[in-house]
Specification:
mainly alpha, AhpD-like, 9 helices
Length: about 180
């Protein structure tokens, strides 16, 4: 499946998402993100959004823009943040401050050695953290990115990619069910 095929599955009530999907992946409109950052972020956030058709379409098109190292790093960002975002969101939201003092004891070595530039991995991790709703992780990744010289516009665009991927996944996941309910 390609992104063009996927866009045809998006119903007219969500046509803004069809347009936004094309816009956020257009490297000329990417606020200074590199082609690899755009497509790596798209793949990581599509995986985090958990819709099979979206993942398949983004993965198919991303292969024309990313080498195997970037593809693996994108998958790794989605995987490790899937774990970390839950753990650190709990630590952040729990009323008991004791949890923040305890070691996580979770293996996360990929963050230190992602196979691509650390800043690029942090950008994808921040976007996945936005989907997963972990404020503590968002703040941590954003601090690292700013320290690495990444502009606010690049960070914002990565989160725009995440927001579109999440919204498209939600529409695709619920549209068929909603259509069936109306027919009944």
């Amino acid at each position: 499946m390609t992104i063009d095929t996927l866009k045809k599955q998006i119903p007219d009530y969500a046509k803004d998402l069809r347009i936004n999907l094309g816009n956020v992946l257009d490297t000329e409109q990417s606020a200074g993100m590199t082609e690899q950052q755009v497509w790596g972020t798209a793949l990581a956030t599509a995986i985090a959004a958990r819709n099979r058709d979206l993942i398949a379409a983004i993965a198919a098109d991303a292969q024309a823009h990313l080498d195997e190292t970037w593809l693996n790093a994108s998958r790794s960002a989605a995987a490790i943040m899937g774990m970390n975002n839950i753990y650190y969101r709990f630590v952040h939201l729990a009323s008991n401050d004791e949890y923040a003092k305890l070691p996580a004891k979770l293996r996360m070595t990929v963050i230190g050695n992602p196979g691509i530039d650390k800043v690029d991995f942090e950008l994808m991790s921040l976007a996945v953290s936005a989907i997963n709703g972990c404020g503590l992780c968002i703040d941590s990744h954003e601090r690292i990115l700013k320290h690495g010289g990444v502009s606010s516009e690049v960070i914002q665009h990565a989160v725009r990619i995440a927001s579109v991927m999440h919204a498209v996944a939600c529409v695709l996941d619920t549209h068929e069910s909603a259509s069936l309910a109306q027919a009944a």
